[in-house]
Please model this.
Amino acid sequence: MTIREAMEQLEEKSLSPYAARSRDTKGRDKPEKLCDIRPEYQRDRDRILHCKAFRRLKHKTQVFLAPEGDHYRTRLTHTLEVAQIARTIAKSLCMNESLAEAIALGHDLGHTPFGHSGEAILNKLCSDGFSHSRQSVRVVEVLEKDGQGLNLTREVRDGILNHGLSARPSTLEGHIVRLSDKIAYINHDIDDAIRARIFKEADLPGEYTDILGRSVRERLNTMVHDIIENSRDKPEIVMSPPMEKAMKDLRGWMFNTVYSGSVAKEEEGRAQRMIQFMYEYYMKHVELLPGEYLWLMEERGEKKERVVCDYIAGMSDRYAIDMFEELFVPKSWKAL
Model:
C-alpha cells in the first residue's frame, strides 16, 4: 500500500460523510499517473503554491493602491489569510482540508494589478468582459506552464470559479472558501483602514459590532465559530441569519466608507488610465507581447483582446508602472 492509499483510507474513516474525498475526484482534463505520496487535492495545492501567478500576488494591490508601509495587506497576504480561515473551518467540520486550502490559494490568481480598479477597467475595455474569478481559472487551465496549465482537478477549479458571495460551488469545501474570503477581507480591510487612519474601531456601527465583535480578533473568532456551530453534521455551510446579515451590512458600510472612499480610491483614476493606455497600445502593437502570448493566438487561436488582457492582468502593480514608464514616459538624454 502506498502512502497516498493509506491517506485516502484515513479520509474514508475520518472525514464527514458530506466531505469531498480525494479518491472520488472527478479528475483532471488530462489524465495523469497518481502520486504515490500525495492525494489529488494535495497535489493541486502544491501546484498552486509553486506557480508563477501565486508568487506575483505579493506585489498586487488588495485595497490601498501602492501603499507605503510594510503592514498593509497585499493580494498574497489576503490569500494566505483566506487559506488559514478555510483550513480552520474545514478541519473543525471534518471536511477535506487539502481541497479547501487548494481552492483558497488559487481563488485570486487571476486578479489584475491595482485590485478591483484594474478588474473594472479591463471588464469595460474587453468586449467579452473580464472577471478575476474566470481569469483565475484561465490561469490554472491555460496560462501557467507556458500554455499547458496546471491540470488541476475539477473540484478545485469549480471552487476557484465560484468563490463569489452569490456563487454556488459544487463542494462544501468550496462553500467554506466562499465564506472565508468574505470573513478575511472584511476584517483585514478594517484593520488596514484603521492603520491608515480612515476611521477608528469605535467608529464602526454598534449595530454590527454588537453581534460580530469589537475588535478584528473578536470578529474573526465570532464569525468562524458561528459557521462551525451552524454547519456541524449538516450537508451545508451556513452562518446564522443574524450573523450573516451583520456581516453583509458591515460589508456594505465598508464599501461606502473605504472601498469607495477618497483615501483608497484617490489614485484609482490614474491607475485605470494607465491600464487603458497599455491595453490600447498592445492592441495596436500586439507583436510586442512576449512569445508565450503570441503562441496563444497563433497556436490556440485565442482572440487578440483576450490575450492582451491576459498579459496586463498578469502584471504586478510595480511591473505595470515600470512598463507604462517604458512605453510612454520620455527618457533622459545621455551623451554616448
Summary: The chain is about 60% helix and 0% strand. The chain has a mean pLDDT of 93. The longest helix spans residues 172-195.
